[in-house]
């Protein structure tokens, strides 16, 4: 049996600025895949960086704004393995272990996908109960768990 190596990572479940009056969540369509592969913004944690600092940096890098308010965070780290097509690109990691944050975009936030290294080609806000049907299989199990937790906590 081999030990797997997981890349530390943060992910943001972003509520629209109209929350709590509507429960819509940001999904971005990845620029590096054919078709529409929708997901939450996410990214690696740099050495010496706290998960919260990584969250704000990644949001700025991926959606052009870190103008958010942290509402809650999932209490555990969640891990998944990369599919073979991604594993070679992410070597030496076999997957990622992620800390999920629930954040709300502030009304002053301006989303801009034309960042230095764009990750998303488009975005949309979908009802919280429609997120799972919009994403790929690789993260479906984790997304279900995270969204169920935030729903049980009374946020969704």
Q: Element order, helices and strands?
A: EEEEHEEHEEH
Structural domain count: 1
CATH topology: Nucleoside Triphosphate Pyrophosphohydrolase
The amount of beta strand, in percent, is 25-35%
Radius of gyration in whole Å, from Cα? 15 Å
Largest sheet: 5 strands, mixed
Number of helices: 3
Structural class assignment: alpha+beta
Instruction: Specify the CATH homologous superfamily.
Output: Nucleoside Triphosphate Pyrophosphohydrolase
Euclidean distance between termini CA atoms: 40 Å
The shape is globular
**Low-confidence segments:** none
Q: Total strand count, please?
A: 8
Name of the CATH class: Alpha Beta
Helix content: 10-25%
The CATH architecture is Alpha-Beta Complex
Mean pLDDT: 93
Structure write-up:
The chain has 156 residues and is an alpha+beta fold. The chain has a single domain, classed as Alpha-Beta Complex (Nucleoside Triphosphate Pyrophosphohydrolase). It is 21% helix and 33% strand. The protein has three helices and eight strands; from the N terminus they run ββββαββαββα. The protein has helices at 51-63, 84-87, 137-152, and strands spanning 6-15, 24-30, 38-39, 42-44, 68-73, 78-81, 95-105, 120-127. The strands form two sheets. Strands 1, 4, 5, 6 and 7 form a five-stranded mixed β-sheet that branches. The radius of gyration is 15 Å and the shape is globular. The mean pLDDT is 93.
